[in-house]
Amino acid sequence: MKEVSFGQYYPVDSFVHRMDPRLKIVFLIGFIVAIFVANSFYGLIACAGVLILIIAFSRVPFVKILKAVRGVLFLVLFTAVINILFHGGEHVYWKWKIFTVTREGIVFSAYLILRLVLLVVCSSMLTYTTTPVSLTDGIESLLTPLKWVHFPVHALALIMSIALRFIPILMEETERIKNAQKARGADFESGGLIKRIRAFIPILVPLLISALRKAEELGDAMDARCYGGKKRTKYKKLRFTWRDLVGFLTLAILITGVALLRVYVGDIV
Q: Per the count of CB atoms within 10 A, which of 91, 138, 248, 268 is most buried?
């Protein structure tokens, strides 16, 4: 759990870090759209190429990227195995009772694995290269039109930012409580599934209490600083630069290219 990287910020001065958070949020949404629009390996390879460029210009270590993928490794492998064993097709390699391994199933599983990895990595890159404060400002700015209908945009952006920031904090707290329980003789590895689930109860109760305590302390700190005024000012103003123009053009080219590949290239199988 201590290796969970989602929600963590990697501080470094890079091209991607200096981009406007609003553009990075829009880029992430557009990138996810491009991933789902792609219906062939050519489209996913184009998305992977753009993502590799983003990683290179962000100067985020490759080890960090692997940690992000490792967090969903079980889901990726489980999805791949299910599709390999149950996806039908004409070219059968092996068959036993209800299980069938076909060429189409293997190709489709590889396609899903690549899509899931791209989704996880691109989402992690947003949190790696954007501080929680910048994310809050970016979300609030993008949702500004909702203020016209008296929607609490700032409160929503703050809630999302705090929830995102609390992910690594709660993971660290879980690891600390687990180590403390192990020092007292708790066993989390042996026994069946029911026994292991019961063994985690001594972790969940202190974790819930700790989360409520941290939330209360955060609320008290915000009240002590008179947080909650109607007209709040910002220390840093968000401004679009030439870097954001490059990012927007890259996204436009990617979506256009993937859409053309979808029209002129067949499906994956």
A: 138
